Amino acid sequence: MAPAEGWRTRRARRLAGLPWVRREDRADGSPVRFVADELLVLDEHFATARQAFAEQGFAVRDIIEEGDVPSGFRRVRLPGLDVARAARRVRVQAEAAGDNRVAAGPNHVFVSTSFEHAGAYGAPCPAPPGTLSARRDGTEEVGVLVLDTGVWLNSPLPKDRYAAEEQRDFESDVDIDEGGITAGDAGHANFVAGVLLARSPRVQPRLMKIVDTFGVCRETDLVAGLRHAEDYRIINLSLGGYTLDDRPPVLLTAVLAGLLTSGDRVVVAAAGNDGQHDRPFWPAAYAGTSAPWRRRVVAVAAHDGRRIAEWSNTGTWITVAAPGVNVTSTFVNHERFPDGWARWSGTSFAVPYVAAAIADAMPEAGSARLAAEAVVGGANRRFGRYAGLD
């Protein structure tokens, strides 16, 4: 079995073994994953949701209300609920009433975007130490919020060059399963932060754990992390996923609209690693929607210096391409990685390349929004139909 196929098989097996994950397969066999038994619904369509529950044989007393959602939404759980059927039922009735918003949806499962393609052919592999940019005296720091895995303390990533404020934002147990460190996404945040620090002397990553060591999170986890984004002008999201009927995720849409409609803030998001050419991968795919804040989302594909990587997702919603193949960065000190550096691939690692370029462009551009436009507009190469950075 080829290493990349082995990686894919392990991760699919991991997800299949999670009792709280359900999947619905499209006609082409590609899956949408979401939390079992949970529906996210707009308050004003909750009466319709109750009707949808009744059609499946549930009574009002069966509804369990979960918290941790923004005002205006409900998060409900009914053991045994056909979530996709209920969501579609609410959407159809909402649209019939003239509401074109996505009125209901699952609590989608998102993954870090080294998820199925890491290293040249599979898991991260050891690399000679690279270099990080030197901090310059008097250089104004730009905070970049990185919502990712926990950060590893035992790493060549300098502790004074990033922020991680809570104990939960750190990891310590390398041997996460029988495959050891290369079977999961341990060190993913360290790697992303290292790319940021290698590319820009002014970046200070704020690393916040929302993704587990296997690279998995829920939509509600991502939304909870984004509640901390008010103080940051650049948000690095090296993660994403597919959604029911390819519609925008319910909660994520509302939260990003609140963050990006006003203020000076941009989201840089990964295109995904499944080689899809016509399927939106969220949140990057917001860049291709009609949302008034779509230009504040930068959707990043990966290239290898000559062409778009065959495994990188593409589509009309891609904003820019950046290096994402055999990237070298800080990783985890481990017997298999004696120097603590690794080589890894994925749209995960093209994202911080672009985020760092935006940070460097901010002083001259005057804002994060204008800096993002300058970076994309000034891309110095073309990789097929996509503008790209070297």
TrEMBL record:
PROSITE patterns: SUBTILASE, SUBTILASE_SER. InterPro entries: Peptidase_S8/S53_dom, Peptidase_S8/S53_dom_sf, Peptidase_S8_Ser-AS, Peptidase_S8_subtilisin-like. This is S8/S53 family peptidase. Residues 142-363 form the Peptidase S8/S53 domain. The keyword Hydrolase applies. CDD domains: Peptidases_S8_S53. SUPFAM superfamilies: Subtilisin-like. The active site is at 148 (charge relay system), 188 (charge relay system), 348 (charge relay system). Keywords: Hydrolase, Protease, Serine protease. Belongs to the peptidase S8 family. PANTHER family: CEREVISIN-RELATED (PTHR43806:SF11), PEPTIDASE S8 (PTHR43806). The keyword Protease applies.
